[in-house]
UniProtKB/TrEMBL annotation:
<keyword id="KW-0804">Transcription</keyword>
<protein>
    <submittedName>
        <fullName>SigE family RNA polymerase sigma factor</fullName>
    </submittedName>
</protein>
<dbReference type="InterPro" id="IPR039425">
    <property type="entry name" value="RNA_pol_sigma-70-like"/>
</dbReference>
<dbReference type="Pfam" id="PF08281">
    <property type="entry name" value="Sigma70_r4_2"/>
</dbReference>
<dbReference type="InterPro" id="IPR013324">
    <property type="entry name" value="RNA_pol_sigma_r3/r4-like"/>
</dbReference>
<keyword id="KW-0238">DNA-binding</keyword>
<feature type="domain" description="RNA polymerase sigma factor 70 region 4 type 2">
    <location>
        <begin position="92"/>
        <end position="143"/>
    </location>
</feature>
<keyword id="KW-0805">Transcription regulation</keyword>
<dbReference type="InterPro" id="IPR013249">
    <property type="entry name" value="RNA_pol_sigma70_r4_t2"/>
</dbReference>
<dbReference type="InterPro" id="IPR036388">
    <property type="entry name" value="WH-like_DNA-bd_sf"/>
</dbReference>
<dbReference type="InterPro" id="IPR013325">
    <property type="entry name" value="RNA_pol_sigma_r2"/>
</dbReference>
<comment type="similarity">
    <text>Belongs to the sigma-70 factor family. ECF subfamily.</text>
</comment>
<keyword id="KW-0731">Sigma factor</keyword>
Length: 153
């Protein structure tokens, strides 16, 4: 099976410089985590935890799949976390996303926030591409019923 994983960044491999990778990936991870959590502090904690877990397992991460493994760790950690600490601090979009089931929220963030293809999301989540399509369709339908003044089409 041919991998559809993006291979654009340096790798956190034993011979590689994980610090350089983390510095390069940080803004992207923080943006994704912020969309997932809706809270800047929680997003920073989530991104840090994802990098720390990947660093601890860096010897098992294939050289050219660092982004895939860090992103998958970020998504899995997010799925295990409780709801946002303080919903009052969330933006309208953050509240709307927080109201969605976790899988729908993750699919929408990865698809529209990170620009991943459905096949990449399916591989990352370990589900079928049809399931990703369904999560995206249901999530977008739920969001379309909300008034989101900060989101421009």
């Amino acid at each position: 099976m041919t991998s559809t994983r993006a291979k654009s960044s340096p790798s956190p491999s034993p011979g590689g410089d994980f610090t350089a990778y983390a510095e390069e990936a940080w803004p992207r991870l923080l943006r994704t985590a912020r969309l997932l959590t809706g809270d800047a502090d929680e997003a920073a904690d989530l991104a840090r935890a994802a990098l720390a877990q990947t660093y601890a397992r860096r010897r098992r991460v294939p050289r050219d799949d660092a982004d895939f493994y860090v992103r998958r760790t970020l998504v899995r950690l997010h799925g295990r976390r409780r709801s946002p600490r303080d919903r009052r601090r969330l933006t309208a979009l953050g509240r709307a996303l927080a109201d969605l089931p976790v899988r729908q929220r993750v699919v929408l963030v990865l698809r529209h926030g990170d620009g991943l293809a459905e096949s990449e999301i399916a591989e990352l989540l370990g589900c079928s591409q049809g399931a990703v399509t369904s999560y995206a369709r249901r999530g977008l339908a739920a969001l379309s019923t909300r008034s989101l003044p900060e989101v421009r089409r």
